[in-house]
Write the structure tokens for this entry.
Amino acid sequence: MLENLQSTTTLHNGVKMPWVGLGVFKVTDGEEVVHSVKAALEAGYRSIDTAAIYGNEEGVGRAIAESNIPREELFITTKVWNANQGYETTLAAFDESMEKLGLDYLDLYLIHWPLPSHGKYVETWKALEKLYKDGRVRAIGVSNFKIHHLEDIMANCEMIPMVNQVEYHPRFNQRELHDFCKKHGIQLEAWSPLMQGGLLEDPTLVEIAKKYNKSTAQVIIRWDIQTGVVTIPKSVKPHRIAENADVFDFELTPEDMDQINALNQDKRMFADPDDMNRV
Ligand SMILES: NC(=O)c1ccc[n+]([C@@H]2O[C@H](COP(=O)([O-])OP(=O)(O)OC[C@H]3O[C@@H](n4cnc5c(N)ncnc54)[C@H](OP(=O)(O)O)[C@@H]3O)[C@@H](O)[C@H]2O)c1
């Protein structure tokens, strides 16, 4: 049911994950991230997406601690960075993230990139399985994994990832990957859902937005959840944080959805995960 910011999808292990969360990529640690996360929590968000490489886990943790929201109501995601891939290094990276976040358990831990040139994502995944079995994280998943990376994990590991967080927006709707994930019960999650602001003037989206008296950002976020994809738009501005969450009082028609789906150009904004080698 898509009723409000606390509405959830159920991952294949039964854990509930909110459909909409706040992303904090490129949000500076300290006051900026603390203010953004607090604005989101006050607006009703319960899901926050950070990563070790964003360098703002401490600020996210501070905002959570100061919010006084019961821990079990929150859904906190962080990610193991490329340089820390490997079994022992991932376990150590997890401890470091938890220390910075000030949490005693995590909701979702992701492998940030597959980094195939390093050949370590299978052993990294085995470390995530251990963290899961030890009860330190409620769900484990991957990010930027293509079908062949997922197949590799499924052939060589025990558990199927619960989530795959990937670039996903109307210009790049990942149809084939989405179908694969649906077939295997892997929840797709959209990063850069607003194409980092690059889609907000699109004439088709502007027209649809006018019909509902909504913004183009709201139309895209609504399209995400109506396509069954969890979404984590980023903003540091409280009015936009609230706007991005005000998507539960309208519904796109099948015709609107078709028009938005037709904007797909199979065009990535960022690197192909097979070529992403940054550590
Ligand atoms: N796993 C990965 O590899 C990966 C990669 C990239 C991103 N992510 C995650 O996905 C999250 C979202 O992606 P993103 O940060 O790249 O981009 P995004 O959410 O697509 O777009 C963010 C940009 O849009 C602006 N914006 C937000 N809401 C708006 C609104 N209602 N109207 C107008 N402009 C608006 C923001 O500016 P202001 O802040 O000034 O409002 C910011 O410049 C990240 O924060 C991160 O958590 C993950």
Remarks:
- The pocket of NAP is lined by residues 23-25, 49, 112, 143-144, 165, 191-197, 200, 215, 217, 232-237, 240, 243-244 (CB under 6 Å).
